[in-house]
Amino acid sequence: MTSVGILNVTGYAGSELARLLHGHPHVQLTGVTGRSAAGKRLPEIFPHLWPIDLPIAESLDGVDVVFSALPHAAAVEQLLPYIDAGVPVIDLSADFRLKRVDEYEAFYKVTHPAPQLLQRAVFGLPELHPDEIAASKLTAVPGCHATGVILALAPAFAAGIIEPAVVADTKTGLSGAGRTLGLNVHFSEADENVAPYALDGHRHLPEMTQELGSLAEAPAPEITFVPHYIPMTRGILSTCYAQLRPGVSLDRAALMRIYRDYYAGAPFVHVSDAPPSTKHVAGTNYCVVHPSIDRRTGRVVVASAIDNLGKGAAGAAVQCLNVMLGLPETAGLQSLALFP
Amino acid sequence: MTSVGILNVTGYAGSELARLLHGHPHVQLTGVTGRSAAGKRLPEIFPHLWPIDLPIAESLDGVDVVFSALPHAAAVEQLLPYIDAGVPVIDLSADFRLKRVDEYEAFYKVTHPAPQLLQRAVFGLPELHPDEIAASKLTAVPGCHATGVILALAPAFAAGIIEPAVVADTKTGLSGAGRTLGLNVHFSEADENVAPYALDGHRHLPEMTQELGSLAEAPAPEITFVPHYIPMTRGILSTCYAQLRPGVSLDRAALMRIYRDYYAGAPFVHVSDAPPSTKHVAGTNYCVVHPSIDRRTGRVVVASAIDNLGKGAAGAAVQCLNVMLGLPETAGLQSLALFP
Amino acid sequence: MTSVGILNVTGYAGSELARLLHGHPHVQLTGVTGRSAAGKRLPEIFPHLWPIDLPIAESLDGVDVVFSALPHAAAVEQLLPYIDAGVPVIDLSADFRLKRVDEYEAFYKVTHPAPQLLQRAVFGLPELHPDEIAASKLTAVPGCHATGVILALAPAFAAGIIEPAVVADTKTGLSGAGRTLGLNVHFSEADENVAPYALDGHRHLPEMTQELGSLAEAPAPEITFVPHYIPMTRGILSTCYAQLRPGVSLDRAALMRIYRDYYAGAPFVHVSDAPPSTKHVAGTNYCVVHPSIDRRTGRVVVASAIDNLGKGAAGAAVQCLNVMLGLPETAGLQSLALFP
Amino acid sequence: MTSVGILNVTGYAGSELARLLHGHPHVQLTGVTGRSAAGKRLPEIFPHLWPIDLPIAESLDGVDVVFSALPHAAAVEQLLPYIDAGVPVIDLSADFRLKRVDEYEAFYKVTHPAPQLLQRAVFGLPELHPDEIAASKLTAVPGCHATGVILALAPAFAAGIIEPAVVADTKTGLSGAGRTLGLNVHFSEADENVAPYALDGHRHLPEMTQELGSLAEAPAPEITFVPHYIPMTRGILSTCYAQLRPGVSLDRAALMRIYRDYYAGAPFVHVSDAPPSTKHVAGTNYCVVHPSIDRRTGRVVVASAIDNLGKGAAGAAVQCLNVMLGLPETAGLQSLALFP
User: Fold this and answer.
1) What residues are paired with C66 via a beta bridge?
2) What ipTM was assigned to the predicted interfaces of this complex?
3) Angle at C133 between CA C128 and CA C134, to 5 degrees
């Protein structure tokens, strides 16, 4: 059994990680931290975790792998000692996702304290970077919207069939806004409501550009990305639109083949004949992808569904752990969706 | 007082019409029909309408104006006698929205029984066609998605600032699917879920093309339109994306000015500085429109919010009535949103 | 037109009052206050109120009637000058609901600053106290749970058919918790959840005992009252249980008659043959009451449905205004429910 | 590995059973039936079950244990051959829950085709009947409301501290109504709504009386039971009220001790110091019970939370399987709740 710990267990990504690791056959969760709750025990903060009766400590000691669910900037600071000590690290913040420090600093409005680590860190999407993750000691779990959009478009970019101009319109459950209180997630105002946000540029955008750009031939993708809050707790549905490149002519079956081939070895991506529903992946690490073509306009439309706390955060982190440790990629992640 | 009647009051558009007409200061609802419920009284079908204690009849007699909430094809058949008799008709179905009978027949898979009426009918969007509606005796209330998308993009097309290639991504509450039962609107399956539908071409698409095309210089709009069901009852949020035309350079303030000027005389369109929320228009005939520009890609992004049963159906029908009868445009429609 | 003002418009009861008063044919809303938002305009806090473009002031000047949506303790303090000046006051807090100052102080844990006013104040339930309200200059709108439970049980207590031991189990939408942020109304935690609260005694309990006790012959009611939060925004469903008194034998029709007679003159109480649904009263001042008998156990079971912000708060306040001013009791309150 | 099959997998209890059995370490799901879908494969009906790629057959062959998720009456008919053949059977319908055939026939309005089996069948609540279930070949999983109410009150009845007069008020998510379509579970009508139902006697009532009566000294419990539909998918919150018996005086700590002692050996019942939330048990086989005392009235108030498809149906069925087969009671049931 590998001993693992979680920095900042007190948010939703942290508590979901605790839930998943508790059921993992090859690892043992031995320590958790959470500044605001230090001194309490985990079930005092999350009653549903009552069998995980760990104290919430100030720091992690003697763990074989460190997960961090800290917010950006705080993550890199607290993780540096572990990184320096050679402990494998899986970080759920944005601190190690981007290769270009200027993009990080432009979108996050902070100075990166350890930019030299950015080239060493690996973008934690095993569907795109399996070998690098297997060899990595510093893995950055992608942003939830980025995961949904990249998995929707990667096969099309890799096959060179679409233009770089992309519209990505995502609909996310409100657990994506975290456990921090706010009027936009106050039940009475969020219930029966939908609204776009971050119209001036959401922070997950540069991850999409970086990763899809690495798959595409020049020129780089030009993505307009607009997320929307919808009245549910878990799930992201990403609907992505791009024009077929001039001269590319393919029917639905051929498009489906491109997608099925691309994800042939990916145990968590399900290329579906039917439009995806987030409810079919609730609580899981699965992603359902449905590519289609709008014949009238010659546009490819791809929709993907993930659980933002599963494949969009904690599930992906466990998947990365499995790849890093050489375990079966699906270990601890085989539960099916809670439906209905 | 003008006497009005409703054909097929037993769906959500019909019951919402009854609610609005009951509170209208200048008209009186004197008759309602509804085949499946004929012989019962209205409050037996809709308990919330208990003060409107009308019998559900087989037909309407002696009304000054007829509203139809019948489904397409059934509408034209039942309306023909009223049209022939010169009774003003306001139809909420698709039967009189499109000018081109081939488009109607391609999207609705039925033969139109009275195509000669299509040129006489007026598209019931008073923001675009006030004078025609004022002179009309046959007004077709637009589809709910069409209203949201057309109001979002009309100023930009009229100003000639955007390319014809448009992506329209809408998120609709489930009352849009009507009162007919189905697994996709079964609570346990629709709750906590989001999914795209009609990926092969939704029926409201040709209305968008027709109306926005009439505003644009050639070439015609090429719209990819994808609606999504989200877990709420009322409301449509439409997010629309289009590239600025080459050579067009404008900042946010200039874009806002174009929109504010275009809707200067429209009492129900509110051009907003902040992103729209459907909850701010629940139960009303208002439409909130928020235009913005994605600087990185040179795209205009416009979001609009309506209540699909309000401005998207029954509210719009009452607004058309007001214009047709020469009443104040806002009569009976001044309630503010039920918030929260 | 009577000029009215609202103290503390920035919560949900305040904004609902503004919405209702805006549509009232005989009054004009001329001033609003709200300490945290003073200096802003009302639509900056509540965009859905954009046609009510009033400044949020520090105090009200020159109004004919004052509504207060302040929290308890703050209400009495700010209202004293108006009361002293003889201005009619309608208070939505608990400060003037209870006759016994010891009960107030035990439940609210504060010293009442003006206990001498308690005997002068009138409990603002026009179904029980029409004449007193008509003559009142200080009316206390009941708590939302109290309204639901009292209206459910008043006819049975007045008729002397039930024992004093009562169980009142209420299910309330989350707008009842107000606009103040908290984990219990954080969307992700309140959604898909139900839980009881205030098991050690909710503050609306003494109102129920006081009012139902005034209708009953001795001994006084012994009420166990447990409220529950359920995942919706508006509405309270109250289910009340009491044993028939020994020797009382009546069938369902007779029970229904007692209820129909009791509420014969009450325009907002609808005694229904079918179990009530909160959705049938959303946005209204109506209360649906459904009395029944459990034959097996000889218990009366009465369920009532109200909108907690309507008949449970702002609607009731407007109804009291109408009665106090000698206006038609239903003025400004005739909108039907927003359904679905 | 024990081979198991499910009769009628096409409802929510059936699909939840399939999900749980798929993750069970000691059994293998080898067959499923479902008349309406015979000939299809399981993932065609439930896409979230794609790894369980079984054909939906007409009958089960060669399984070691049979689960039935058939409706009552149909269950006993289809199960008779298995029972006769000595195959262990776990039935989720009401057909084998009641000892008295007259009660069954009064509540279910059908003639029981095999009343002789009723005495042989065991009521499948391992917290009350562990040894009988261990020895049983015919186990009847209790109704979901019955489980919530019985677990809430069993310790109090067993300890003889409460009077027989009981009020049980339950609030259930809409998956409890099953997958059959209906207006009461149509999203637009069920959303933002709460209503009581079955006021003339719900079918789970006789199970409560039977089981609690077997624990109590005479006289038998007199239960008024009213269920309510609330707008969520999973979970039942049961709030139960009973008077302390004359002469019984105990404080909260003593009450808690009674409950903790009673459930000391029950791995799935968590006696909690805080009021229960259904969200803390979503997707699990756990039951959270919170006993309290209303000092003012001398009443015990006990609230319990379960997942109606977990401990209320499929989870309980798997727990019974474990007990019947001598497996660890928690095998396959250790997942923690999906929170938030």
Assistant:
1) C5, C89
2) 0.97
3) 120
Whether A41 has its CB under 8 Å from any CB of chain D: the answer is no
Structure confidence by residue, pLDDT tens digits, D94-123:
999 999 999 999 999 999 999 999 999 999
CB contact under 8 A, A183 and C187: no
Any chain B CB within 8 A of the CB of C279? yes
Distance between CA atoms of residues C38 and C163, nearest Å: 50
Q: Is A144 a catalytic residue?
A: yes
Map tokens 């139900």 to a residue: C194
At B48, the pLDDT band (50, 70, 90 cuts) reads very high
Compute the distance between CA of residue A313 and CA of residue A92 in angstroms, rounded to an integer: 7
CB contact under 8 Å between C197 and D275, yes or no, is yes
> What percentage of chain D exceeds 90 in pLDDT?
98
Question: For B171-309, where are the alpha helices, taking DSSP H only?
Answer: 187-190, 205-215, 252-262
* Pairs of residues, one from chain B and one from chain C, whose beta carbons lie less than 8 Å apart: 70
Q: Which of B46, B280, B334 sits opposite C48 (nearest CB)?
A: B280
> How far is it, in rounded angstroms, from Cα B187 to Cα D232?
8
Q: What is the pLDDT of residues B143-164, one digit of tens each?
A: 999 999 999 999 999 999 999 9
The answer on pLDDT for B216 being more than 90 is no
Q: How many CA atoms lie within 13 A of A63 on its CB side?
A: 25
Of A232, A233, A301, the CB nearest to B226: A301
Share of chain A above pLDDT 70, in %: 100
pLDDT given at position B218: 73
pLDDT tens digits for D36-52? 899 999 999 999 999 99
Q: How far away is chain A from the Cα of C267, in angstroms, using its nearest Cα?
A: 29
Chain C hits for D199, CB-CB cut-off 8 Å, are: 275, 290, 292, 294, 301, 303
Computed over every residue of chain B, the mean pLDDT equals 97
Interface B-D, measured as beta-carbon pairs within 8 A, has a size of: 56
Low-confidence ranges of chain A (pLDDT < 50): none
Best of D183, D191, D193 to substitute, by most chain C Cβ atoms within 10 angstroms, is: D193
In whole angstroms, what is the distance from residue C277 CA to residue C239 CA?
12
Helix (H, G, I), strand (E, B) or coil at C44: helix
Cα pseudo-dihedral B143, B145, B149, B151, rounded to 10 = 50
Q: Percent of chain D having pLDDT more than 70?
A: 100
pLDDT at residue number C35: 87
How many CA within 13 A on the CB side of residue D96?
30
CA B257 to chain centre: 25
- How many Å apart are CA B54 and CA D184, to the nearest integer? 24
The answer for residues whose C-beta is within 8 angstroms of residue B277's C-beta and 6 or more apart is A193, A194, A195, B288, B305, C47
| Residue type at C84 in one-letter notation | D
Measured distance CA(B320)–CA(B140) in Å, rounded: 9
